What does this fold into?
Amino acid sequence: MIVGVVGLGLIGGSAAKAFKAAGHTVYAFDINSTIVGYAALEGTVDDELDDKRLSKCELLLLTATPQAVIDYLVEKAAEISPSTLVIDFCGTKRLVCETGFELARKYGFTFVGAHPMAGLQYSGYKYSRENLFSGASLIVVPPVHDDIALLDRVKRVLDSLQFKKYVVTTADFHDRMIAYTSQMCHVVSNAFVKSPSAQYHRGYSAGSFRDLTRVARLNEAMWTELFLENRENLLTEIDHLMNSLAEYRNAIAEGNAQVLCSLLHDGCVAKEGTEK
It folds into this structure.
């Protein structure tokens, strides 16, 4: 299979390494051509993804930020073969899928939105690894939700990435859930480490601190774009958390053990419910 990868950061670099290890031909494009050159010297990619090679790809994987993916698709759609399956791995789906589905109808290729539930607290090609997606789930946003043949095709072309589970949904539901399961975690973690107490944590912190602060380190430019694109869903989650924190604060400030105990119990029950 000839694979084109657009964006050689953590996600794109990891995908390129997995495809190359499986014996596929991999062409790549990145706004920083130096990264493509390094990946070629390292043996991760065969060459740069130009328009001629783009037209020969069976799979085109788009792993840049949403706006960068949209810009690339708008510019290159006419060069993409009707036989090509185009899949994006962006962190939000609504705008990317709207553009992808529209261009796919116009130019004849097949577009599917997707989002791998895998990653690290670090970004960039140097942190990419061949097994990043192994055992992870992939959220899939297809143009038609009952097209079993298309889902089978997606699984086949992405087999080298070794996803364990495929979840089919809509762009809107994806973005609503990601606001809670991913974006809120980064917001809370990033805000939490701004406490003046953070600089004195060594010797006083253990697993709970590490778990809560792991994703405080992030690519601020990328996450700013993702947060603002998904602002309505993210604001809903932030407001809900702020309201909940106010309840805890009031109970503690008032010394109300009964209310505080009830709030903590409710949280334990809620956590147990998420594990069923």
User: Anything to note?
Assistant: The beta strands are 2-6, 25-29, 47-48, 59-62, 85-88, 110-116, 137-141, 165-168.
